[in-house]
UniProtKB/TrEMBL annotation:
Organism: Pseudoxanthomonas taiwanensis J19
Entry-linked InterPro entries: HATPase_C_sf (IPR036890), HATPase_dom (IPR003594), His_kinase_dom (IPR005467), HisK_dim/P_dom (IPR003661), HisK_dim/P_sf (IPR036097), PAS (IPR000014), PAS-assoc_C (IPR000700), PAS-like_dom_sf (IPR035965)
SMART domains xrefs: HATPase_c (SM00387), HisKA (SM00388)
Enzyme class: transferase
Domain (Histidine kinase): residue spans on this chain: 155-374
GO molecular function: phosphorelay sensor kinase activity
UniProt-listed Enzyme Commission number(s): 2.7.13.3
Catalytic activity: ATP + protein L-histidine = ADP + protein N-phospho-L-histidine
Protein name as it appears in the record: histidine kinase
Database matches in CDD domains: HisKA, PAS
PROSITE patterns registered for this protein in UniProt: HIS_KIN, PAC, PAS
Keywords: Phosphoprotein
Gene3D superfamilies assigned to the protein according to its UniProt record, in alphabetical order: 1.10.287.130, Histidine kinase-like ATPase, C-terminal domain (3.30.565.10), PAS domain (3.30.450.20)
Keyword Membrane: no
Amino acid sequence: MTHAGAPASPQGEHLLLQGVTDYAIYLLDASGTILSWNTGGERIKGYTGSEVIGRHFSCFYTPEEIQHGVPEHALAIASQEGRYETEGWRVRKDGSRFRAHIVIDAIYRDGGLVGFAKVTRDITEHYQAAAQRRQAEQALAQAQKIAAVGQLTLGIAHDFNNLLAVITASLDLLPAAEGRRRQMLVDAARQAAARGARLTRQMLAFARGQSLEPELHDVNALIGSAAEVYRRAGGPITQCVFDLAEADTRVMVDAEQLEAALVNLVANARDAMEQPGTIRIATRITRPDPALHPGAVAGRDYLYVSVADDGRGMEEHVRQRAMEPFFTTKDVGRGSGLGLSQVFGFASQSGGFAFIESAPGEGTCVTMAIPAGEAADA
Ligand SMILES: Nc1ncnc2c1ncn2[C@@H]1O[C@H](COP(=O)(O)OP(=O)(O)OP(=O)(O)O)[C@@H](O)[C@H]1O
Ligand SMILES: [Mg+2]
């Protein structure tokens, strides 16, 4: 299209524009009246030249757009800036709509505006293909969501199994137990059953699409109230000790998730024990170095909740992969590889991070770091 000056050969240009069928190319005077028409215009919009020449170009716009003054706005922009470009729905003669890509160029002569050249391209097919692609992408995202729910279900089944193991272990020991010990076993089984019931409620809440809001919990108190569950989960040859910070250990967490994470860690410690040993559950407030812990926010205090054992420890390649979902070194049927991924998921969903310190023969310490100081913010 020419911007300035009259075409060298008006007749030649006319023939050239006539031949273009993929684009509607036409000229408007300064007020928007149609001065010329081409084959592309006929093809795309369905009007012949005699039907539109002399009419105002707003006849191609939808009634809503005319009401909102869109055609005038387009010309105003083109005359101010020299060019106006847009994409939108336009109307054909038969009333059907098509997706249009539109460019309006202002034509100046001797410094004054004489009219506009308007080029309209029908991009309906392209637009529909893009819409179909978007739909396909949405369907894929939905499928991925379903897969994630499947993984979550596995995780919950896994947590449930841990609780059943506590109940079974307690029941096994019950016939031979007496007095205070008997009472402790009964309490442990009852607490595990109650946690199982809460887990089922959580699952139902999730299925109904309710999200589980973390709440302010005193982690020391949570650990204290379930101490017997951890002792049972630790099995007969381990001793469970608690080393709880003398500090404000209130943080925003989901209590069931934290307890499930601790049971998972204690179960791992138990499995790593070849001879009688100690499992140490500890809490402390720390300000981690972001250089060592990329998940940490500089200058922020975290509550470290850790489970340490003096078991066999991990080879470096195991330590690096241990938190991956389904990663396990245990025999089929013994481990699903979901314990540490639940721990990791819990810590990151709580706004924190988790890490493993371990070496062969040196035992293992897994730490969940949860942002502290929320009690003051809350
Ligand atoms: N305390 C630990 N000491 C030594 N190795 C550990 C310890 N905790 C985890 N591991 C290693 O990390 C792997 C992954 O642990 P994770 O808890 O995710 O799965 P798992 O214990 O194998 O199976 P699941 O917990 O699903 O029954 C374990 O198979 C084990 O090799
Ligand atoms: Mg495990």
